[in-house]
Amino acid sequence: MVPLSILDLAPITAGGSPAESLRRSLELAQHAERWGYRRFWLAEHHNMPGIASSATSVVIGHVAAGTKTIRVGSGGIMLPNHAPLVIAEQFGTLESLFPGRIDLGLGRAPGSDQMTARALRRGLGSDGSDFPAQLEELRAYFHPAAHSAPTSRVRAIPGEGLSIPIWLLGSSGFSARLASQLGLPFAFASHFAPDYLLPALDLYRSGFQPSDDLSEPHAMVAVNIIAADSDEEARRLATSQQQQFLNLIRGRTGPLLPPVDSMAPLWSEQEEMLVRKTLGYTIAGTKETIKRQLPLVLQETGADELIVAAQIYDPEARLHSYELLAEAKREMEAEPA
User: Fold this and answer.
1) The predicted structure's pLDDT at residue 151
2) Euclidean distance between the first and final Cα of the chain, in Å?
3) Who is most buried in 61, 232, 247, 279, counting CB within 10 A?
4) Where are the domains of the chain?
5) Which fold has domain 4-230+282-334?
6) CA distance 66 to 84
7) CB contact set of 200 (below 8 Å; sequence gap of 6+)
8) DSSP characters for 276-331?
9) pLDDT below 50 — which residues of the chain?
10) pLDDT tens sequence across 287-314
């Protein structure tokens, strides 16, 4: 069984607050550490009333300070929103504070709408097309001798000389191709972009060039897994996530909503098809359901790791879901081959 990690969006629930969300993210990470999860990643989103991890580096520090062994990182930092020097300094600081535990996952999407992107960047000069150059600049701050530094007079302190794993994240073929060319690990956002997963993985693996960072391709696949004591309850909990994506399709944002007994009154037939397609890599059920369905995902994708998202409204139900998944993994590992 491959390692399991957690992708946390620090959800702000209806009637809740960012402060509660951030406390619950730390609580989840502390439990995840005990349950054997490998990584705990947080994602950069902006102008989203339902997500509290906009200051991603700060939240990573918060989580790393409250845990001891689990790797903590970004899934991801949207590099076009930032000066590469700032990210090098931020993650250099994090690695200096929590050595050997920090991951830097990078994406090239804005993580927001165009108006918010303009506010972040003070203009729209970077649309993601210069992402490879930004990435090279960032890597040069960590290891100037190995990369083309933008200027030898600018240094990232802390940052320079530190070994911080860089992952490229994507939902299409662009980052897959770039990760393969540079010999970097690759994580695909199949939890909301399932259609492009297999072509992107093939592109990454077939074109992979070994590097000082990685001798062979290493792919992590994101899936939605919602576990409960019954399949019916898991499907009910999953309606919070379905409502979230339904609102995104309609151009709305808001806090994570409570689950409902039926989605039928809330969406049209076309909307239902679109949401279910978007959330195609979703498992909702008991431990036994997970143990039946998870191997199919691994067989189809050949993933080296899985990172799991679970947008669940009730914090106790979210903890229980990840605990059940960890138990299912242990039971799968204990079964004879």
Assistant:
1) 59
2) 11
3) 279
4) 4-230+282-334
5) TIM Barrel (3.20.20)
6) 27
7) 170, 172, 173, 175, 176, 186, 188
8) HHHT-SEEEE-HHHHHHHHHHHHHHH--SEEEEE---SSHHHHHHHHHHHHHHHHH
9) none
10) 999 999 999 999 999 999 999 999 999 9
